[in-house]
């Protein structure tokens, strides 16, 4: 499916005009700099010699995949294909014997009678060949989906275990995109490898028989097949070139078609009339892609005509040579008859071989991407093991922590931050948009590593600590927490999916988050599906989702609860209620790290850190900070004034 999309979507050439609006929409030149470029190197290697030398490695890779997926089926395929090759050689030799008997001297009845046992053997061999083919088809059919599953599972497993920074790294993301084709390619490699083995064996059989019949026949066979090899290679090279140049275009048109149908974009598409705009772009991109495909088809047709003419000439030369040998008495008529059959069998095997090797090679490139992804994901995986965190730490300390997101941003998101988070308290992080609050808690949760400085849990540096243990201690309601397209129950319990789901824990979590009413109003309560695009699905309001998000964090029962703007979507009453609950949590010894712009809600915090442009600007209790008259006091009075300041009259005129 992916592959067919890939093939279908081959677009216009590298220099094909990119409209100005496309540039604006997708930002900059339509070129890739990783992943696909590695294909380009492989593409340059796509010549006959490289293909032949790489063949054993490719077959080995397919065998390994098959072996991993289902040993029994792999054995059956190999044995059946080898058996078919032998059966083919035996039939050719039997055919030679039949022809020899039929053309030889004596009464026709005797000749026919003499040929009967060999004909019977020929029929038996054909039957065995057919049975072997059936066995191979059956086993290949079993193997293919398993290979795809094994490859996909590994892809997903590795992708899910990498650091957040890798997932956000555009180069790694491109590799993820490219490698997704690898599993389908791995599946197809199995049948191509089977075809290669079968074509190879039957070619060897035909070539051996031909060599026995007359040595000059072998080069003639090769000459007849060269044109097919040349045209298959030429077309494959063109397809690669086109694909590499057009891949960004393909991604962009997928993006546009996705935007036109996704529920999130649907309201704006309708109210702002964005549909025709997007559709126009989609059509323009699809049309240019069609032009490229037409270009490729035209070239393929031309190459096909040249190859056929070449094959025709080579065939005439072959039969002329056979006739010459017959006339010169250098070959018996029966041998010439067998030679014709062997040449036909051999050339069709060679054709099949070239096409299968070509396809194997093409798919191997995508499997190569998958293997590169496996390797890179393993390198960028969250490390296993590490120093244990203290069982009951007193504080978390940031010491001169600096962090910069990858990219071109000149200013670090966190700049030389030194602060303390005492555990068992409510600590608030305050500051204007972009001041670094979310980044700070992401570092605290181990999602990113500091570029400079240390984060200590008492005396244990998180740089060397057990990362899984660290995550275990944290429950987080992020600003953009995931709205899972599952039931309300799963949306809460997914906070700790490894724990057995108990009604008590569920009820307590819903209560802590004040989400009981939200769930009570759902048509099927906790079992309501929260995905409108499915039948029976239901959609929650932003505030209702937010309460479920808090319930999820409560269900997790992490020792440190991080809540990033927990009340942004809540009405005034709900907001009060949520902060009440958060305060109640803290009184049970739970650490709460609270990020909020609603400074009235911060009054109950034990400690407030104020960030400004990535730096720590102020630290203290809310009262101390108010008295100090700094950023906190300024933001606080700005908010307070909104309720008391008179509304300015509209300007006249
Ligand atoms: N994933 C990211 N990649 C690159 N830059 C980022 C990323 N996330 C945040 N930034 C940048 O880091 C800086 C700090 O962002 P952060 O989200 O930590 O601020 P914040 O104080 O939480 O803001 P807000 O109050 O708007 O939530 C900003 O300049 C932002 O553009």
Automatic annotation (TrEMBL):
Subcellular location as annotated: Cell membrane
- Answer yes or no on keyword Manganese: no
Annotated ranges, domain ABC transmembrane type-1: 85-362
Question: Sorted alphabetically, which keywords does the UniProt record give?
Answer: ATP-binding, Membrane, Nucleotide-binding, Transmembrane, Transmembrane helix
Membrane spanning segments where? 192-210
Provide the membrane topology annotation: Multi-pass membrane protein
Annotated ABC transporter domain residues: 396-638
Q: What is this protein called?
A: ABC transporter ATP-binding protein/permease
From which organism does this entry originate? Streptomyces cylindrosporus
């Amino acid at each position: 499916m992916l592959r067919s999309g890939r093939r279908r979507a081959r677009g216009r050439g590298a220099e094909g005009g990119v409209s100005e609006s496309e540039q604006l929409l997708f930002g900059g030149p339509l070129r890739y700099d990783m992943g696909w470029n590695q294909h380009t190197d492989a593409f340059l290697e796509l010549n006959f010699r490289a293909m032949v030398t790489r063949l054993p490695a490719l077959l080995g890779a397919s065998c390994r995949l098959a072996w991993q997926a289902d040993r029994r089926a792999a054995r059956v395929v190999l044995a059946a294909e080898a058996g078919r090759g032998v059966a083919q050689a035996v039939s050719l030799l039997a055919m030679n014997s039949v022809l020899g008997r039929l053309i030889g001297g004596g009464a026709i009845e005797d000749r026919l009678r003499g040929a009967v046992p060999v004909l019977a053997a020929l029929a038996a061999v054909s039957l065995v060949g057919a049975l072997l083919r059936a066995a191979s088809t059956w086993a290949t059919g079993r193997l293919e989906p398993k290979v795809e599953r094994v490859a996909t599972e590994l892809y997903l497993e590795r992708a899910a275990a990498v650091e957040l920074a890798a997932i956000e790294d555009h180069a790694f993301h491109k590799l993820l995109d490219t490698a997704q084709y690898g599993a389908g390619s791995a599946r197809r490699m199995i049948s191509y490898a089977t075809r290669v083995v079968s074509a190879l064996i039957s070619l060897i059989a035909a070539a051996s028989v031909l060599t026995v019949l007359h040595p000059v026949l072998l080069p003639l066979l090769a000459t007849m097949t060269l044109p097919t090899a040349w045209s298959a290679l030429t077309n494959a090279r063109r397809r690669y070139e086109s694909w590499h140049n057009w891949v960004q275009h393909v991604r962009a048109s997928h993006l546009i078609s996705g935007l036109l149908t996704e529920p999130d974009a649907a309201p704006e598409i309708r109210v702002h009339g964005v549909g025709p705009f997007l559709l126009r772009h989609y059509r323009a991109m699809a049309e240019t892609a069609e032009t490229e495909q037409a270009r490729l088809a035209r070239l393929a047709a031309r190459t096909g005509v040249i190859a056929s003419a070449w094959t025709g000439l080579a065939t005439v030369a072959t039969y002329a040579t056979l006739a010459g040998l017959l006339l010169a008495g250098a070959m018996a008529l029966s041998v010439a008859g067998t030679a014709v059959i062997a040449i036909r069998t051999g050339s069709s095997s060679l054709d099949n071989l070239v096409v299968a090797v070509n396809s194997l090679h093409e798919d191997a490139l995508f499997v190569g991407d998958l293997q590169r992804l496996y390797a890179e994901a393993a390198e960028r995986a969250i490390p296993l093991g590490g120093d244990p965190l203290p069982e009951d730490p007193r504080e978390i300390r940031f010491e001169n922590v600096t962090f910069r997101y990858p990219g071109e941003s000149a200013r670090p998101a966190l700049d030389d931050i030194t602060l303390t988070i005492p555990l068992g308290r409510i600590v608030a992080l305050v500051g204007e948009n972009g001041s670094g609050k979310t980044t700070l808690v992401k570092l605290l949760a181990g999602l990113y590593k500091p570029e400079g400085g240390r984060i200590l849990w008492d005396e244990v540096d998180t740089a060397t600590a057990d990362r899984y243990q660290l995550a275990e201690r944290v429950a987080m309601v992020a600003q953009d927490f995931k709205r899972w397209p599952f039931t309300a129950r799963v949306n809460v319990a997914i906070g700790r999916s490894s724990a057995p789901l108990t009604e008590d824990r569920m009820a307590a979590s819903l209560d802590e988050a004040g989400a009981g009413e939200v769930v009570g109003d759902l048509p099927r309560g906790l079992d309501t599906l929260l995905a409108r695009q499915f039948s029976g699905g239901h959609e929650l309001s932003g505030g209702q989702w937010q309460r479920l998000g808090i319930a999820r964090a409560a269900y997790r029962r992490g020792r440190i609860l991080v809540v990033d703007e927990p009340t942004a979507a809540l009405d005034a009453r709900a907001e009060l209620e949520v902060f009440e609950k958060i305060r109640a949590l803290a009184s049970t010894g739970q650490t709460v790290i609270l990020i909020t712009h609603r400074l009235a809600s911060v009054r109950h915090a034990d400690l407030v850190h104020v960030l400004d442009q990535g730096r720590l600007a102020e630290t203290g209790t809310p009262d101390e900070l108010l008295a100090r008259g700094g950023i906190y006091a300024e933001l606080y009075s700005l908010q307070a004034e909104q309720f008391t300041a008179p509304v300015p009259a509209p300007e006249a005129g």
